[in-house]
Write a structure and sequence with these properties.
By secondary structure, this protein is α/β, with parallel strands linked by helices. Strands 1-5-4-3-2 form a five-stranded mixed sheet, with helices on both faces. α4 packs parallel to α5. The chain has helices at 3-9, 34-39, 43-46, 58-67, 82-91, 102-111; strands at residues 13-16, 27-30, 49-53, 71-74, 95-97. Helices cover 39% and strands 17% of the residues. α5 (82-91) links the parallel β4 and β5.
Length: 121
């Protein structure tokens, strides 16, 4: 599923765009613990993965950069700081925000064919 389709499904606002925004997304991870995102990263899979989180600091972007996660979706109406947005632009990681709760966002994506983490994560 293309990121713009995910944006429509989640009624999300695009905060920052990148050349990666046309990626075909197949997987989603949901976590506010960046250590879990790193611990269960799968480099070849994560290129087609979005992270759903309520954490909005720049460590989220750094974590996704290291793990190879393609995009970040902030839930519960949270908005990142200008510093976080700037870093995401530098790292070419698109950012979106939705008013949905994490559980709702995951459910919508799952019912529309986006898979969860692999059995190892």
């Amino acid at each position: 599923m293309i990121l713009s389709e995910i944006q429509k499904l989640l009624q999300a606002v695009l905060i920052s765009e990148s050349s990666a925004s046309n990626l075909d997304i197949k997987f989603a991870k949901a976590s506010d613990l960046m250590s879990d995102v790193l611990a269960f990263s799968e480099p070849f899979i994560d290129r087609n993965t979005v992270l759903i989180t309520g954490l909005t600091n720049k460590q989220v972007v750094r974590t996704c950069e290291i793990a190879g996660v393609a995009a970040i979706i902030f839930v519960r109406g949270k908005k990142p700081s200008a510093e976080t947005i700037d870093l995401a632009k530098q790292c070419e990681i698109p950012l979106m925000a939705t008013n949905l709760k994490m559980f709702e966002a995951c459910g919508i994506l799952y019912t529309n064919g986006i898979l969860g983490p692999t059995p190892s994560g």
